[in-house]
Design a protein that fits this description.
There is one protein chain. Helix 1 crosses helix 3, helix 2 runs antiparallel to helix 3 and helix 2 crosses helix 4. This protein starts with 5 loop residues before the first helix and ends with a helix. The longest helix has 41 residues. It has one domain. The chain is built from 7 helices and no strands.
Length: 188
């Protein structure tokens, strides 16, 4: 990752941030679409007349972006893909790439998930449950949807960490995360 030339190093960090943000955007859209499909199936089964907002509107998008940023940046720091100086610059870059002009909308959720991560260190299910609740309320304002969303969050989380490992060239961690995802889905 590190190169002798400071300009090349900065350029490389920029490229990684842009690529990771692009991949996170794809993952965000795919996950949200899968949630909507699952919710629609649940609504049909329960014969619910609940109004479902299937557009990735700002509130849901901000929530998902914040969740991704908090966990992906934490993973990158934990894996020590960057030194502390690079991490600061990379964090600003990735936040700008992911949030664009909507950083102010994402910030309350970033703060919420960062604080929860500090409080619930290692208690991922509690973090994932809160995220699921936030998404459920942004889609249909219905807590009955939380279990349907919650079952997909670990997969979404793992896929985002795998994306980070891949863009940093950490094939070993990427493959371990991919194997974990495959096991979860019963794929050998």
């Amino acid at each position: 990752m590190r190169e002798n030339n400071g300009k090349n190093q900065t350029k490389n960090i920029e490229n990684i941030a842009f690529e990771l943000a692009k991949r996170m955007g794809i993952a965000r859209t795919k996950w949200f679409d899968a949630c909507i499909e699952g919710i629609k199936m649940m609504a049909k089964i329960s014969k619910s007349n609940q109004s479902i907002d299937s557009s990735l509107k700002k509130n849901a998008d901000s929530i998902i972006k914040a969740f991704q940023l908090v966990h992906v940046l934490s993973f990158i720091a934990m894996q020590r893909y960057l030194n502390s100086e690079e991490m600061g610059s990379f964090t600003k870059l990735l936040c700008a790439c992911v949030c664009g002009n909507e950083f102010k909308e994402c910030l309350p959720y970033i703060e919420r998930y960062t604080e929860l991560k500090k409080q619930k260190q290692g208690e991922f299910h509690k973090q994932f449950l809160l995220f699921s609740e936030d998404i459920a309320f942004s889609i249909a304002e219905d807590t009955l949807l939380v279990p349907g969303i919650d079952v997909t969050v670990l997969d979404f989380y793992s896929r985002n960490l795998a994306l980070a490992a891949e863009v940093f060239g950490d094939n070993k961690t990427y493959n371990q995360l991919l194997d974990s995802i495959k096991k979860t889905h019963g794929i050998d």
